[in-house]
Amino acid sequence: MRQAKILFKGEEAGILTQYDDGSFTYRYHDQWLGDSGKPAISLTLPKTEQEYRSEHLFPFFFNMLPEGTNKQVVCRHMKIDQDDYFGLLLTTARYDTIGAITVKKIEQPI
Prior knowledge:
Elements: E1 2-8, E2 11-18, E3 24-28, H1 30-34, E4 52-54, H2 59-62, H3 68-78, H4 85-92, E5 101-106
């Protein structure tokens, strides 16, 4: 299992999780849900207490990934499998993205 904090303009909005079977969940933090001034991170992931589930990386996050030559360069340089979309997201969406969302890896205790 791998997890990442999803930040909206630097504030934690929720947690994205990839499970060992390759499926994903996204869950908003209760504090984010409780503040009516905080927006949904995406039109496709509206604010709700219910956890979102998907067999594949959610399209909103998938669309943040580099494509083509840029993807090849990042994967080769960072030694990431080209089919490891979660690993690619963790690598490329940490600091500077187009839009308000950044993705920070949550280190799992050993």
